[in-house]
Design brief:
- By secondary structure, the protein is mainly alpha-helical.
- It has helices at residues 47-60, 64-80, 89-99; strands at 5-6, 13-14, 35-36.
- It contains three helices and three strands, in the order E-E-E-H-H-H.
- A three-stranded antiparallel sheet has the order 2-1-3, with no helix packed on it.
- Helix 1 runs antiparallel to helix 2 (64-80).
- It binds zinc ion.
- Zinc ion (ZN) is lined by residues 7, 9-10, 12, 25, 27-28, 30.
């Protein structure tokens, strides 16, 4: 049985869950359930559909830990397709703020 995977929040590779001395991620300390490699799938989805799902998840994440998880997942997907636009609303608004520093953006968590 393959018991390897990665941290859902920071993406660090976990060689074996059985050999972990803690239930927390050894790198970031996350207590969220990690991703098992055996559950890795490829799915056909339109980028716009993915953007909708991620923005909804981002907006309905009630805790900062859940927002971190959604953003981590989105960033791993964005890295796979660097030619596509950003998937998170926070990312899009941060990009807008960099291009138009005088812009005021209210009500979007994570805007830098
Ligand atoms: Zn981690």
């Amino acid at each position: 049985m393959n018991d390897s995977g990665f941290c859902t929040d920071c993406g660090v590779k976990i060689v074996s869950f059985e050999n972990l001395n803690t239930s927390n991620c050894p790198l970031c300390g996350s207590e969220s359930t990690p991703c098992a490699d055996e559950n890795q799938v490829s799915a056909s989805i339109n980028w716009h559909e993915l953007h909708i799902l991620i923005v909804w998840a981002e907006q309905f994440a009630k805790t900062s830990e859940m927002k971190r998880t959604v953003w981590s997942i989105a960033h791993r997907i964005e890295k796979q397709y660097p030619d596509k636009h950003l998937l998170t609303l926070a990312g899009e608004m941060s990009q807008l703020k960099r291009e138009f520093p005088e812009a005021k953006i209210n009500g979007v968590a994570g805007v830098e």
